[in-house]
Amino acid sequence: MSIVNQLMAAVLAVLLGLVSGSVYLMSDSSKAMLLNQLESHGQDTATHLGLYLAPYMLQEDEATIETTVNAIFDSGYYQQIKVVNNQGQELFSKSTPPQISEQVPQWFVDIVKIDPPEMTREVTSSWNKAGSIFVQSRAGYAYEQLWRGTKQTFLWFVVLSLLSIVFIHFLLRYILNPLKGVEDQAVALSERRYVEQENIPKSRELRRVVIAMNMMIQRVKAMFDAQAKQIEEIRRTAYQDDLTGLANYRSTQSQLVERLDYRKDFGNGTMIYLHIADLQGLNQKLGVEKSNNFIKATAGQMEKIAACCEQSVIGRLTGSDFVLLADLTNPDHLQRELNTLISSLHDYYRQLHHDSRDAQAPVYIGTTPFREDCNASQLIANARIASEQAVTDNNHVHSIQAQEQEQQQQNSWHQHVSDKVSRGDIFLQSQPVYAVGNTEKHLQQELFARILNQENEPCMAGEFISVIKQLDLMSELDKTVINKAIERLQKGDQNTFCINLSNDSLREDGFYNWFANAVRNLNAPQQLQIEINESSVLNNMEQVVRFRQQLKDSRIGFGVDNFGVHPAGFAYLYSLHPDYIKIDGSLIREIDNNAEDRFFVRSLSTVAHSLEIQAYAEHVERNEQLNVLAELEINGSQGWVHGRPVVLD
To answer: With a threshold of 0.70, does the pTM exceed it?
Structure first.
């Protein structure tokens, strides 16, 4: 219960006590007043009867006495009237049981006791004592008057109390509103959001509390910013080229091996290998500073091509060599991008080389198509050979083209994949994620979509994913996988299934409504988890934040896949706040042998845990890696050390 509600409850209790006490005191006062009225009324009646009946009482005229008493008694205000002579003998008496109106509840009668006094008047006539008259007023009249007054008083008190409560409620909310702001700050701080109150209250105590809370938030924010900057600096030092900001040789090689040799989910694409010829001569001709500017311009142009791609791996291998693996498969599109790159570099080179307008940049590019059966080392070697041929031919671009037979086979494969996905003719494989140090604790099963090739044999994702992307069927594939997972969960499967969504689904506005309807009837929505690749998160942040809230409302888990390698860093964790992250396999592969990897992964784990986010490691293959992950306090592990993906029954 909030402090405002507690104060309101206390005020209400005081008001109820006040009302009860006031009603009791007023009732008691009214009761005493009514008894006085009954006493006065009885005394007046006895006096008046005595004056009138005195001669008749002296003569003991019972008929006249009876007639007179009946006339007065029938008015209904009396409970008993008795007339006696001077010897104490009763001349006439009339009484009625105490009658109380039905409007007066019995509980009120039981609580309030009213016993009207019997008033006596001695009667004389001609200085002779004629007798006495006894009059007792009716109690029912007093009950009726007292009940009416008590009820009206109570109703007025209730109305006034309610009005007072409403007024006090708004007054307390206004006074204690800064405390609500402090509460919101505390909740936001627990979610690593930093909210400061701009309106400082004037009351001394609340003012101090709000100022202290703002100062604490500023310090915590500074602490986490410093931590994030430190980790970013570590990442740049270990994995980025100092001059261009691109991935360095080691990081580029690791990412290519991860995507092409292990994950095999890149699909078809093109490897672009750019070589700057005679870099030493360029330094002598332009000077070191201008040469460095030219190298940075070259990196920037390659980044522009990468930005146009759905997925890419870009890096600087040596001082004069750059590589870009891009999902560009259209030769005309590729050629336009390369022509733009070469033209831009020529123009920039001429700006640096003032001696000649015809000078051309010593840049040579080799390209080779990537197919799923090609590994990273072979692909880089082929692209390097193509760039060397470009230098030999003195032609700025040399491309290795796919053979016509391969193109025909590719067209046939496209049709086959299209038919499979359109019919929903896919099957699922799964790979478990276990708690590090406890293989009995099963955290989730990641699902992978698979199809049969033209020989009815299962094929890996890399063999058909690129085709699905080209055919614009990724969203349909995602929906099929989700439906199959939901179907298994509805049949009572006790596993927690994890599904990786594509960029296409995130960018499709209708997908979110479809997903909400698909999971609406899930009996255990917490058994479903959605993962999104880190690059997709950063490229679609607005949609992902909205989708994250939708998942949270539906009690469905959310994670970031391939975490830790994107050059934009990980500051988005503070606003997105996923349930878990999966650290990219390129950072895990040599973690048992490389101190830099261990330090960086430990830093990522520390940041995640400070945000109450679980940290899992991908592509764990050796027990030595598991031992290191346990020391780094990683929560879960996934990879061939636990077994290869298996087909779901």
So the answer is: no
